[in-house]
UniProtKB/TrEMBL annotation:
Residues 5-149 form the MoaB/Mog domain. One of its GO terms (biological process) is Mo-molybdopterin cofactor biosynthetic process. InterPro entries: MoaB/Mog-like_dom_sf (IPR036425), MoaB/Mog_dom (IPR001453), MPT_Adenylyltrnsfr/MoaC-Rel (IPR051920). It holds the Pfam family MoCF_biosynth. Keywords: Molybdenum cofactor biosynthesis. This is Molybdenum cofactor synthesis domain-containing protein. CDD domains: MogA_MoaB.
Length: 163
């Protein structure tokens, strides 16, 4: 069972002005698929706070996976990709590209996503969109490959060839 951290980047949810639906959806979806949620937090759209939380989850909690939601658009306050870029050691561009590719089949607005994915030490970080509908679609798309990627990252398997 892989461990999971969830970070919601939202000024409104942080202040209590909006109910966080995306984070709850992530939590329920991932727990149903045998991921253990170790931390779930809502932070304002502040790059330094996002970076601190990402580093804490990677370095102190040693989580296997972090899923962020929100802060990936064009607004000046959308800084989740920049925070992620600042703290990762290696890119994992195929995940974000795959999510965008799949989302473009549903809406042309998917091209406006600036989400990224990457690795810090032994933790995979994936930026997800902010809307619950897009979060669900993204999770359904990446889930079949996610476990295998984490197994490789953790050294539990070394084979990537399809059977």
């Amino acid at each position: 069972m892989f461990t999971l951290g969830i970070i919601i980047a939202s000024d409104k949810s942080f202040k209590g002005d909006r109910i966080d639906k995306s984070g709850k959806l992530i939590k329920e979806f991932m727990e149903k698929n045998n991921y253990k949620v170790k931390r779930y937090t809502i932070v304002p759209d502040e790059q330094s706070l996002l970076e601190e939380e990402l580093i804490y989850m990677c370095d102190d909690l040693n989580l296997d996976l972090i899923l962020t939601s929100g802060g990936t658009g064009f607004s000046r306050r959308d800084v989740t990709p920049e925070a992620t870029l600042n703290i990762i050691d290696r890119y994992a561009p195929g995940i974000a590209e795959g999510i965008r590719y799949n989302s473009l089949k549903i809406t042309s607005r998917a091209m406006l996503s600036r989400a990224i994915s990457g690795i810090r030490k032994d933790t995979l970080i994936i930026n997800l969109p902010g809307s619950p509908k897009a979060v669900k679609e993204s999770l359904e798309f990446i889930l079949p490959s996610l476990g295998h990627g984490l197994e490789i990252l953790k050294g539990l398997t070394s084979e990537c060839a399809r059977k």
